[in-house]
Amino acid sequence: MHDMLKIKLPKPKTISLACSIVAFAVLVSICGFTIWVFSLLSERHAQREVNCATLVAEPIADTVINDLCDRGLIPASLGECGQDTFQIQDIMPIVTSHVFENVSTYSDVTSIFGKYEDYCDPKLADQRDFRCNYFIGQWPNILIFYNSETEVVTRVTTPSCTGGS
Questions:
Q1: Domain boundary among 20, 36, 56
Q2: Which of 10, 101, 145, 165 could lock 157 by a disulfide, CB 3.0 to 4.6 Å apart?
Q3: Is residue 120 within 8 Å of 142, Cβ to Cβ?
Q4: Does 5 map to a domain?
Q5: 16 lies in which domain range?
Q6: Is the same domain home to 24 and 98?
């Protein structure tokens, strides 16, 4: 009876070998998963770059170009109206050639690009700035921030795919 109650335990060398094999398998699994995640992120980043390159190379609508050309708003450095094609990536230089940080006011911007203003955040007393979105071409490609008190332009920027900020 005494012999039946004896439990045969594996030898210590066997346990340490088994633990080593399990630890190695876990480590390989973690490394494999990490490589897969980084590969997926890299593929998404590459696709985003392709999408952005496609977007910024799109031409600006003729109606917008005609309006900007008629009002003399396209800088000569970007090309000549009626002869050159202007792309989404040209919008930021067009705007920044007429809107100056710490100089231009909301009224100045409205007189030039007011017809393209899509939305402005409300001016709130407890916020230093408010932001307006401008659709010059397509989607909000220009964001202009104004001082809530003075309405002076504090920053002109654009989402990352539309020509940098």
A1: 56
A2: 165
A3: no
A4: no
A5: 11-56
A6: no
Burial of 40-73, coded b for 16+ CB within 10 Å and e otherwise, reads eeeeeeeeeeeebeebbeeebeeebbeebeeeeb
- How many folded domains does the chain comprise? 2
102 vs 97: CA distance, rounded Å: 14
Distance, in Å, from the CA atom of 13 to the CA atom of 17, rounded to the nearest integer, reads 6
Domain identity same for 96 and 39: no
CA 74, distance to chain mean position in Å, is: 25
Contact yes or no for 68/142 (Cβ under 8 A):
no
Q: Is the pLDDT of residue 162 over 90?
A: no
CA–CA separation, 147 and 131 (whole Å): 9
- Is the domain of 17 the same as that of 86? no
d(CA 98, CA 73): 8
Please state the pTM of the whole predicted model. 0.66
109 in a domain, yes or no? yes
Write the pLDDT tens digit of every residue in 100-134: 999 999 999 999 999 999 999 998 888 999 999 99
- Which tokens hold the place of 58? 């799109």
3-state helix, strand, coil in the chain (%, to 5): 50, 15, 35
